Amino acid sequence: MSEVLVYVDHVDGAVTKPTTELLTLARRLGEPSAVFVGSAVDAAKETLASFGAEKIYVLDDASLSEYLVAPKAEALSALVAEKSPAAVLLPATTEGKEIGGRLAIRTDSGLITDAVDVEASGDGVATTQSAFAGNFTVSATVTKGTPIVAVKPNSVAPEQAAGAGAVESVSVEISAGAKSAKITDSKPREKTGRPELTEAAIVVSGGRGTSGDFSQVEAFADSLGAAVGASRAAVDSGWMPHAFQVGQTGKTVSPQLYVANGISGAIQHRAGMQTSKTIVAVNKDDEAPIFELVDFGVVGDLKAVLPQATDEVTKRK
Ligand code: FAD
Fold first, then answer.
1. Cα–Cα dist 264/113, whole Å
2. Electron transfer flavoprotein alpha/beta-subunit N-terminal domain spans which residues (predicted)?
């Protein structure tokens, strides 16, 4: 069976959910091999093996963490040249897409970003891609070199499957050119205890209809173990930081469930959430445009609806 390389997204060895999704998809294309950059592979190997990684290639060199993404792309391209995989899958995060782009140039291969589905096909890898802020669904396939595919988080439900998880150390030689931009400082994100917005399976968002009080939105999110999002109106009003903004000029999310509270459903907000699997809205105006998009809608005041929904979810736990 042909090998499929999966770039591992992790935080100090804690494997992120998008990586487990990539391993799930990789199994449709061939035999998954995880590519782990860093020194904390011991913390990661059990998870990687439990999602089907047969091999875990470890690239452990100080320059891979000291510099921006160029050394990672260089190391990965050396691995692609050596292994000739059937495909390379990366998460469609800022880092994953940049590595993918550089890797495509280095290996003279085609790149597909923001894929939401991946299947084996006669002539390689068939993908479904969400393009132009989610306004088009495109079927695409790579016609040159090694298919390099960046997959949006939450595109598939991760499924476990036992893999051997054999760790193999790979020596890396990074060129001076790849070391031309260095990280000089980094600050960890403030911990909220909630999942990352773009990775969360459930997102509960609030808009201008909250009148600046996000406490009911946050309580409902916490009852569901969800991330909190916001419309631009809420962000521009200073109620939530920009990191929470969903939409054209904010983040694109594609969770299993998106709950919009007091959000009218402007096209720029939809651009960031319309590929969510199930959409629910709470809005007191039954003619709000968001209701054209939803699977379930509640016409009512969010200040009355959300506490009841929170109680109900908490009761059923
Ligand atoms: P509103 O449109 O004011 O809607 C508030 C809604 O809350 C209304 O439907 C109202 O009926 C309802 N409501 C009020 N009180 C209650 C209550 N008590 N209970 C229940 N419902 C209630 N917007 C984004 O969100 N993300 C973006 O990334 C983004 N990028 C943009 C980029 C550009 C270039 C431009 C021009 C605009 C962008 N916008 C973006 C702004 C967008 O056009 C809208 O202005 C914005 O999404 C509106 O936010 P809102 O739905 O919270 O507010």
1. 29
2. 4-188
Q: Which residues of 100-119 are buried (b: 16+ CB within 10 A; e: fewer)?
A: bbbbbeebebbbbbbbbbbe
Distance (Å, whole) CA 150 – CA 130: 11
Question: Ligand 1: does its nearest atom lie under 6 Å from the Cβ of 237?
Answer: no
Q: Is residue 249 a known part of a binding site?
A: yes
Query: Three-class SS of residue 288?
Result: coil
Write the DSSP assignment of 136-147 as a string of letters: EEEEEE--SSS-
Q: What is the dihedral of CA 35, 37, 39, 42, to 10 degrees?
A: -30
| Distance (Å) from CA 261 to ligand 1 centroid | 10
Reduce the DSSP state of residue 162 to 3 states and report it: coil
* pLDDT tens sequence across 229-279: 999 999 999 999 999 999 988 888 889 999 999 999 999 999 889 889 999
Strands (E) located in 162-274: 166-170, 202-206, 227-230, 257-261
Pairing relationship of beta strands 257-261 and 202-206 according to DSSP bridges: parallel
> Residue 248, annotated ligand binder?
yes
Which of 269, 270, 287, 303 to mutate to test ligand 1, by most ligand atoms within 8 A of the CB atom?
A: 269
The secondary structure of residue 51, as a DSSP letter, is B
Q: What size, in residues, is the chain?
A: 317
